[in-house]
């Protein structure tokens, strides 16, 4: 079956240069994984932080499970990330030394049914970097449009 992408943080690619990525597991409750499998997750304002030797996902929204009862989860609670000690040390060291930020890029379900989070070690873009990206995207779009018109015979 392969992996199924549930949520993508499009704002992360817009606001940051992603320098490196890591894969992390998530500590979830039963209703949270059911909600994620139903596609009810959002990484829009989320970020990750390393505190006391553990990695945490902060600000991610996982909607309450519709079939849940009064023990349903809190939508924006802080969730623990599962990483190896060496990965946590590497994240912490590189983020502190180079002034990088840890942002979630993508939330997906593996072929075995486990929820995984792709974390990016990112450097913030300046305004001129964003403008350059927009100009490049517009240029690619214009070239594709012209190519499509030529192939149609206009």
Describe the overall structure.
The chain is of the alpha+beta class and 154 residues long. It has helices at 10-15, 30-37, 85-98, 127-152; strands spanning 4-8, 16-26, 41-42, 47-51, 54-58, 61-62, 79-82, 101-109, 115-124.
List keywords for this structure.
two-stranded antiparallel ribbon; seven-stranded antiparallel sheet; alpha+beta; Small Protein B, Chain: A; 4 helices; 154 residues
Tell me briefly what this model is:
This protein has 154 residues and is α+β, with helices and mostly antiparallel strands.
By secondary-structure content and strand pairing, the structural class works out as: alpha+beta
The major β-sheet equals: 7 strands, antiparallel
Beta-strand fraction estimate:
25-35%
Helix-residue proportion: 25-40%
Overall 3D shape? globular
Number of strands: 9
Q: Indicate the low-confidence ranges by residue numbers.
A: none
Number of domains: 1
Please state the second-level CATH architecture: Beta Barrel
The total of helices stands at 4
Roughly how many Å is the radius of gyration? 19 Å
CATH domain topology:
Small Protein B, Chain: A
Report the end-to-end length measured between terminal Cα atoms: 42 Å
CATH class: Mainly Beta
Order of helices and strands: EHEHEEEEEHEEH
Average pLDDT, rounded to a whole number, is 85
CATH superfamily: Small protein B
């Amino acid at each position: 079956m392969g992996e199924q992408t549930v949520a993508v943080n499009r704002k992360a690619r817009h606001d940051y240069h992603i320098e490196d990525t890591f894969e992390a597991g998530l500590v979830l409750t039963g209703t949270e994984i059911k909600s994620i499998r139903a596609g009810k997750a959002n990484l829009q304002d989320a970020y990750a932080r390393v505190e006391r030797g553990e990695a945490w996902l902060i600000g991610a929204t996982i909607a309450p499970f519709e079939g849940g009862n009064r023990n349903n989860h809190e939508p924006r609670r802080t969730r623990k990330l599962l990483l190896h000690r060496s990965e946590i040390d590497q994240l912490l060291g590189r983020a502190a030394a180079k002034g990088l930020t840890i942002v979630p890029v993508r939330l997906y379900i593996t072929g075995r049914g486990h929820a995984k989070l792709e974390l990016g070690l990112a450097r913030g873009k300046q305004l001129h970097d964003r403008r350059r990206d927009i100009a490049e995207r517009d240029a690619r779009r214009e070239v594709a449009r012209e190519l499509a018109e030529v192939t149609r015979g206009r």
